[in-house]
Amino acid sequence: MSIPVYVVTGFLDSGKTTFLNILLNRRDWKDIRILIIQFETGEEVFQSQNGNCHKISFPKKVLEQQPKQIISQINGYLQSHEEELDEIWIEWNGVVPFSELQSMFLDPSLRFLCKIQKTVHIADAANIENLLGRTGGALLEQIANSDFVVLRNVSVAVTYKRIRRLLNGINPGVDIYDIKEYDDLYKQLFRKKENPVNFFFAALVFIVAIHIMVKPILEIFQIPVNTIINVFLGIILQAIPFLLIGVLLSSAIQVFVPQSVIERRFPKSIGIGMLVAILAGFCLPVCDCASIPVFRSLVKKGIPLPVAITFMTASPVINPVVILSTYYAFSGDLNIVIGRVALGIIASFIIGFVFAIRPPKGHVLSGGGLDRLMCSCGCYEDIESITTFKGKVRLFIRHSQAEFFNVGKYLVIGSFVASVFQIFGTGLFTTAQSGAGLALSIIIMMVMSFVLSLCSSSDAIVARSFSMQFPMGAIMGFLVFGPMMDIKNVMMLSSGFSKRFIGKLLYTMFIVCFAVVFILYGLGVM
Amino acid sequence: MQTRVKAFNPQIFLEFLCYSAFAGLMLYLISSGKYLSYVTPRMEPYLYFTAIIMGIWALAVLGRMFRPQHKVRSMHCFVLVIPILLFLLPHGPLSTSDFSDNFIGGNTFANRREQNSNDLSLEDRSPTDTTNLYTQTNVPELPGLDTVNKKITVSNDDFGKWLSEIHMNMEKYEGYTIIMTGFVLKNSEVLEEDEFILAHLIMSCCVADLAPAGLLCKHDDVSDLKNDTWITVEGTFFIGQYEYDGKNYDDPQINVTNITPAEAVEGYVYLY
After folding, report:
1. For chain B, percent helix, then strand, then coil, each to nearest 5?
2. Domain count, chain A
3. How far away is chain A from the Cα of B257, in angstroms, using its nearest Cα?
4. What is the pLDDT of residues A238-273, one digit of tens each?
5. Domain residue limits at A45
6. Which of B4, B5, B131, B187 would you mutate first to test chain A, the one with the most A CBs within 10 A?
7. Strands in A334-422 per DSSP E
8. Where are the membrane-spanning stretches (chain A) (predicted)?
């Protein structure tokens, strides 16, 4: 029987010892025999009041220089006291990565005696944001590996919300407690963890079962499940290669392009920056699935937001593949091709300018200000510190994998919603169209392009199929707005950006695209 | 620094399984040609690309298989697992009968009710798209053409090519006898009493844009032809008219002389 090990992590002065003092000295725990191993000595001293705790301390110096000695010392203690111990609690050092502790306890001499069960991270709400920005990887890594985060000094709800979002960015789905909620924490602390692998296979079986059971039932109600599945798979099969291109490209920017190059080389003026963005958009034959990860990495790398937005909105409309497919779809009608490209460029310029004039308040990236420093892939090595090419390639692969899953889950959800809408929704739009004026028609087509979430390289054909009941202006609204923004793009953006920013972006894009198309077509310019 | 301890990492193992399975699935879809039920042939290189990247990723994670990790996650794998499962679980390709009015392809049909119900037929949409394509790719002589007897026999594989060729060079083929197979598409509100469309399902990008397209046929007795039934039509080719946007356009049509039932044709016609 291996002894359960519980770990408390947190930066210096975050209140780890205080936490242990309160927790382990509870009256109802007085019969539990506990070994406390401290790897840090702070101002506060752990004191056992019920006499049930034994304490060993290791200074940081020993930890750094003679980890073997620590292992054998712990081993020796456990060998001699095995029958007398119920739990081991560890107060880990705030500036040493958690993985080192883990390696020690996975050492063959300890592995079968004790096992790390849960880790609790203690954070001081007053300075955690500040610390994360300055202290490098160890703290991030500790948070990412924790099962619970306990927050101290939470004074205002706003701070709590912000920190919560920050922590969730580092460790998605982690349980966060206020230090006052001790009782809730106790309950959770000793609950058995479901094994994620078992959970995975259970979910797998569940999906298959749902598929087999529910499909016939839905079909009885005349819901064309088969069609939805086909459309869904079609969109996925089409989008995944482009998503891959997108994450590879964006990871390459993240890993291989040093920050300093961008800071030095990229045009300082926003106007010129936007021109460069549009040129770059033209050169990248990617559709909207790819432009969103690239957009995110550009923002992270510190490209001015208006420029990055111009790039994201322009590239799916004006790239060569899209131009060519529009040309084919509209039987070589150059007016439409030129119209689409021109309107796309005008609209993305204006959208960029709107964001230049009225920059969004607060943090744009959902990880708060820190998002620039860390990457979402669980590799906490500082990108700039890895210098060997081999190391960078390895990081590049890890990074792109993490990003693929990160954005991919939104792609799957978005594609599914879009495929359901495709089956049920389009009839609504065409019905609404009858007798509508130009303005309304444009809006209908724009909403439809949003809902259908077609890949920008294929939407021209679909637009063409609506050209019989919608005026040309409305078709143009579809062609210009659709690639910039749709359900699946909103989903993918929410993997990295704050909801408020996405909302503003969506709203601005819609208004600008509508205005541009309406003015040019309504006044008969085109 | 101490030496790295080894311990099995289940998360990496799951990821490895997913990457390998997805790469395998891509290769299977390509080699069996099944991907054509979802996307057009021009996606093939992209699917190879996907398979290669997934393969590289699978190899890349092998090195981390025994790197211990405290917090194991598994749910992210469903990004790949869900598509894999849906591909493997039984589901049929879309057939002609799926094109009722509430489907996007069917919409091109529904539209026309509001329009002047002249013979503004949906087949004028896609084929005209293709015309330009094939002017560039330039197909010199299409199979099935018999200039001596002024006869065209359209095989199912060449349906798309012939459709565009006929639209492009209507004059050249006027008066020819044409034999082609397709399914019947009738819509009383759009077509005249004696008209139907001989169509195939055409895919321009992926199943999401699948739509019927074909040639308009005139026949005295259309009443016993049922929607979605496959037939082979023999008839004379002539240039009719349709109205779009207030203008009249020439439209290739068939004066049907003989109709025989035919086997349903699997698969779709691809634009490019």
Report:
1. 40, 25, 35
2. 2
3. 31
4. 888 878 887 888 788 777 877 677 767 777 788 888
5. 3-189
6. B5
7. none
8. 199-218, 230-257, 269-295, 307-330, 336-357, 410-429, 435-454, 466-485, 505-523
